[in-house]
Design goal:
This protein is of the alpha+beta class. 27% of the residues lie in helices and 46% in strands. A 7-stranded antiparallel beta sheet has the order 1-7-6-5-4-3-2.
Amino acid sequence: MFQFENTIRGRMNIEKVWRLYSDVSQWSEWDSDMQKVTLEGEFVTGTSGTMFMKGMPPLQFTLNEVEKNKVFVNSSVLGEITVTFGHYIFEEGDEEYALKHTVTAMGPNEMQLQGIGQGIVANIPFNMERLFHLVRIE
């Protein structure tokens, strides 16, 4: 299993955060790896969609958990590997929040998981800073 997490903290407009999370057409604004994302329905648990990432074939995903202004988790299956992405919002005080993004990859080949996992998470800290720049309160 491969696991990763990154957290940012600060004063931010949580409604803006949720709009950027729940409107998949805006994922490319904060995720530098995304070209386009489509969703086959509402942004709710069980809905599927497709991510079009730079230099990669289209990738199907499913929303495994969605709770407005709290969390969304999505997963994709790549052959024998399942990759799960978590996006969590924690209130820490007056307009102070923490955003935590996690990645878990599971499959039979540990070396393969580590290699794929490292590639997947390489830009997450940068992308989270992009997201924070869009939602921060100064």
